[in-house]
Amino acid sequence: MNQRTYTGTIKGQSVRITSGDLRRFRNALLGHTDLTARMSELIWLDIYILNIHFGVSPLDIIAAIDDVENGSTVTGTKPPSQFKNLPLMGLWHKHFFSAHFMLTNINLALGNHGLEKIAAKVFDPAISPVFTKEAIRAFANRIARDPFDQRAAAQKLTGEWIIYLSHAGQNYYLACNTHDAGDQFIYDRIIQNCVHDFPDLEAWIRAQR
Fold first, then answer.
1. What pLDDT, on a 0 to 100 scale, did the predictor assign at position 173?
2. In this predicted structure, what is the pLDDT of residue 100?
3. Which of 1, 8, 22, 56 is least enclosed by beta carbons within 10 angstroms?
4. Is-contact 48 35, C-beta < 8 A?
5. Could you count the other beta carbons within 10 Å of the beta carbon of residue 74?
6. In sequence order, what DSSP letters do the residues of 167-199 get, joined into one string?
7. Structural domains in the chain plus CATH codes
8. Which residues contact 86 (CB under 8 A, 6 or more apart)?
9. Residue 178 to residue 194: CA distance in whole angstroms
10. Can you tell me whether residue 101 is helix, strand or coil?
11. What is the pLDDT of residues 135-150, one digit of tens each?
């Protein structure tokens, strides 16, 4: 079994992660299953780094993968969608959600002037000339809980991406990436690393275009 070593700098700290580290991490979470056989070493590297260095739970990412596998909406995130433009055309992405992304979702739900509109309604002096505990509590719910719950109910929660390929009736999970990483960077990173696990990957991608 080939042993690969990944090195880099994260938050100013030198990091060295081996294939063995990733296998042990994978086995502790899921073991060796049909699903993990379709997950690249690269996506396990991403899950490992997100967990160890950024506090994102691996279970949040695995839950989003389970949604894709089962056609379910348990996580409340946006449905999977296929990339339409090169170089990522043929690949799919699915959002995964973590508490780290809660503020982003609240801001999206409120919109540009949502906060001001809610404040004007809740603290309307025609209703009460003073700030009461009840009004403050209602304001907190209206700007935090309600927008988040609305996006979750509408399956619009957003986070970062799981990139995967659908081939021959099965899904192959390749990497996690941020929205702003850049399409060419994402594609090059996947090809550079995931062909190691799936030698026919480039042909599979072309067949989906």
1. 98
2. 62
3. 1
4. no
5. 10
6. ETTEEEEEEEE-GGG-HHHHHHHHHHHHTTT-T
7. 5-98+159-207 (3.30.2310.20), 100-153 (no CATH)
8. 183, 209
9. 18
10. helix
11. 667 655 665 566 556 6
